Amino acid sequence: MTASNGIFALIVVAAAAFFSYNVQRLVGYLRVGRLDDSRWNDVPHRIWNLVTIGVFQRKIFRDAVAGPMHAAIFWGFCVLSAGTVEFLAAGIVPGFSFARFMPQWAFRFYMGNQDLWGALVIGAVAFALWRRLTHRVKRLQGAETHANDPLFILSWIGALMVTMFLAESFHMVAHAESATPFYRPISFALATMLTWVPVGAAEVIHAVSWWAHGLLVLGFLNYLPYSKHLHVVASLPNVYLSNTSGPGQVGVMQSMDLEADVEQFGAKDIEQLSWKSLMDGFACTECGRCTAVCPANITGKLLSPRKIIVNVRERLETRAPAVLMADGSGPVADDRLLLDGFITEQELWACTTCRACVQECPVSIDHVSVILEMRRNLVLSESRFPEEVVPAFESMEQRGSPWAFDPGERGKWSDGMHIPTMAELAERGETADLLYFVGCMGSFDERAKKTTVAFAKIMQAAGVNFAILGREEKCNGDPARRMGNEYLYQMLARENVETLAKYKVRTIVTACPHCMHQLGSEYPQFGGNYDVIHHSTFIEHLMAQGRVPLRQDLHEAVSTFTYHDSCYLGRYNQIYDAPRETLKRALPVVNLVEMPRSGDRGLCCGAGGGRMWMEENEGRRINAERADEALATGAQAVAVACPFCMTMLNDSISSRDAAIPVYDIAEVVAERLA
Amino acid sequence: MKLAVCIKRVPDMEGRFKIAASGTGIDEAGLKFDMSDFDGYAAEVAIQITEKLGAGEVTVISLGPDVVQETLRKALSMGAHRAVQLKHDAPVSDGLAIATALAAELKDRGYDLILCGRMAVDTQNRSTGAFIAELLGLPVITAISQLNVEGGVVRARRELEGAYELIECPLPAVVTIDEGIARARYPSLKGIMAAKKKPMDVRPAQLGAITYQLEKMELPAERAAGRIVGEGKDAVPELVRLLKEEAKVL
Description:
Chain A contains 28 helices and eight strands. Chain A has three domains: 3-30 and 63-135 and 147-226; 270-387, Fumarate Reductase Iron-sulfur Protein, Chain B, domain 2; 400-674, no CATH class. Chain A has helices at 3-30, 43-55, 66-92, 104-134, 149-174, 185-193, 199-223, 231-241, 275-283, 289-293, 295-298, 305-325, 338-342, 345-349, 356-360, 367-381, 390-399, 422-427, 439-444, 446-461, 478-482, 486-502, 513-522, 535-544, 577-586, 622-632, 643-653, 665-671, and strands spanning 434-436, 466-467, 507-510, 531-534, 560-563, 591-593, 637-640, 662-664. The longest helix of chain A has 31 residues, at 104-134. In chain A, helix 25 links the parallel strand 5 and strand 6 (591-593). By secondary structure, chain B is α/β, with parallel strands linked by helices. Chain B has one domain (2-204): HUPs (Rossmann fold), CATH 3.40.50. In chain B, the strands form two sheets. Chain B has a nine-stranded mixed β-sheet, with helices on both faces. In chain B, strands 2-3 form a two-stranded antiparallel sheet. The longest helix of chain B has 17 residues, at 37-53. Chains A and B meet through helix 16 and helix 17 of A and helix 5 of B.
């Protein structure tokens, strides 16, 4: 061991120690957050997420340009990390090489990959720098981003690669006798071009490059904790611990203990957020894919999901030391809380909870849960919310519907249709195979009632034995929960669970994706476990069984349809095909044209997350943005599978000169009933 | 400063009403109840006064059976400090008898300002506030849309048709609250939790003599169904003809 090995060993130890200190410091910060033990179950599923989303970059590839670029750098990083380990070990123990532990073929394969991936990384980094410097890619802009950090990091990675190749090729120049042309083709090619360099000079350049590479590696390692590039360390654990791609149903809000003796309901600051939400801040590398698909942001509103996550990390890094150091003397005073200090009410209320941001995030960050925890604080602790939602809250409480309709008239749409209520059946000692949970829109809204009637007619034509709850049905509570009013939500959910238990309901159909998500995915929190089937799935199933008698003629007034995906059907419940299949089965001669943003990339109609009851005065209207897109397909009609989407799209489209009809898929099928 | 707010529990006015078998009241089955809107504004105004002063106490009072405690609890969850139920199980329609019971409760308890809604949204008698003032010998300003209490003086504004008036009187006084002054706040969960620990006194109501009885309550006759003449431009001449000849409004 030489003096230089000794010095290098000391530097490596110091760098490792400092890095380890920082990792412990940051992991310690997570302790400031709220307990959340929903992250340790279903290890196989989590490993699956880690492998597909993490290792195989499933979500990264959703961007056809940045996807391959990032994957090259990431996979290169993985491969080259092995080389870095060998490099560091050889720096401390002279002559160290993996060749000692590997069969020759494996070692040669490994070496070849070092060269190959090194070159790919250089290419990808060069492309990334060029893209950043010459194309102002919209999603990479934004006041909340650390604008120079990416250029700095990319240059650093580039320098790492260049020094690696320089060290290797000048080593070959200096030691031509031991050069291994075949296994390190790129380094060898470089060396071949450099044979004119005198051996002594080559030795010096090799040594300088080697040290530069070593110091750059260790420096980079220690730069990470202070940069957005911390995602290198935090992403994979974040993907593993995230629930945004399962295990379990996605998009489910955690329940709250409303009797808890707590100072704050919901989150006013980072202490009330789940530790996992805080970790999201570490995993974010500000790529902006979330903000680029956010319907609020697209239409010119202040909300940017990326900013929410960047703010969480900013606040965490200033606040956590104060909390952790306060040794019982109470948190250090700091008047810039996460709520109001970093994130404004205006941003929080703009969210439609459409989950487009969550769907897009390559490292499985959950932006929506941060927003909703903060809404809970606004409503439950501070009673702060847009005043126009007060009537909705009061009406849900008073009448079990967000609109001021007489609860006694809930079943009125079914007058003359001979549809029994559960209560009527129970009185006769009978029961139904399934319950049709109509929902408030379907029961009271004039337009949505047509869908309700259409779906009921289809079921009757197919001979389905179903019943409704009539006046006993109440709002599923989704608007209250998404608007942060967990107290009102739990009241409604418990009442519904009680009613459903009374009739021993097992299977439920509904035409409303919000009802479906509540009853199917969130009611289990209150002991309500049902098979909940959306009408698109159910109608398709009935048609597949040949139970829906359709007219045989093929004359249609409309020859092209476009289908608009509902967020709560699609991104929350992964139902994309059933509504399309239903349309195709009902209308075999009709063309289905897709909007550019469809399937799991579908753009929200603007009504989710309680936005239905709020004014939309900021920026453009989301439904107008979506209506433009639908009209631009040239379709002659729009199909939807959600009463909220129906209202939003219909409102915007019907106000145009070139208005086209908006139908629910059930109406399309009912129209063709024989 | 001690403030008292008289509140009434009323049915949700969006519901469809049926007349009870007695013929002198509504059938309460299936109806939801809440605080009368104007009483909610009154409670809000009183709470805002104590919040602004950083001192003072708001007592909410309601007359009726035990279910009114629910309504009182809502006022407590908005931020009122204590509640009194004047227990009386049978329905009473005589405003003077009710005002007498409320006045007996309000008397000699040192209230500086007594607030009532301009009227109960169900019975719309508009009498209780003024009766209370008369029974207590206090000045009263009715149906106010703005209120300022300072230096022992009440200044209030009343909306008139196309004009308004400003009225001043010394404390103690009674005011009745019109809309437009303040929206009743939506109670936070924090408020709801705090309300569970606030004092709720129950005393028997000392009703005054009944001066009149409600004889009979009836629903208006059902309106005849509308008729759709047609759609679009073509329907206009027929519509005009019907408006002229049948409805005789043109």
